[in-house]
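Quick start: what a row looks like.
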Amino acid sequence: MCYLVVEKYSVCRCIYYKHNIDMCAAYGTQGHGIQERTVLVGYACDRHSSHAAEESSSREGYSDSGYGTASHGSHRHSSRRHRR
């Protein structure tokens, strides 16, 4: 299967970079498809970052990381096992 990797900004989904197609042996044959894979990068593009910065500056803490919340310090992952 051929893949096309496209990097997009995580908030606005604008394209950051579109890679060349990673071709397999069946590339170019009739009915063979190319599967697009999206990788999220950064936060927002230059066009949308000024709008995003205005929104986030009106809120306290970090908007998407969880570090600005009071509950973060006491949060434990239920799947984590501690050794004694």
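That is the whole record. The CA atoms of residues 75 and 81 lie 14 Å apart. DSSP finds one helix and three strands in the chain.
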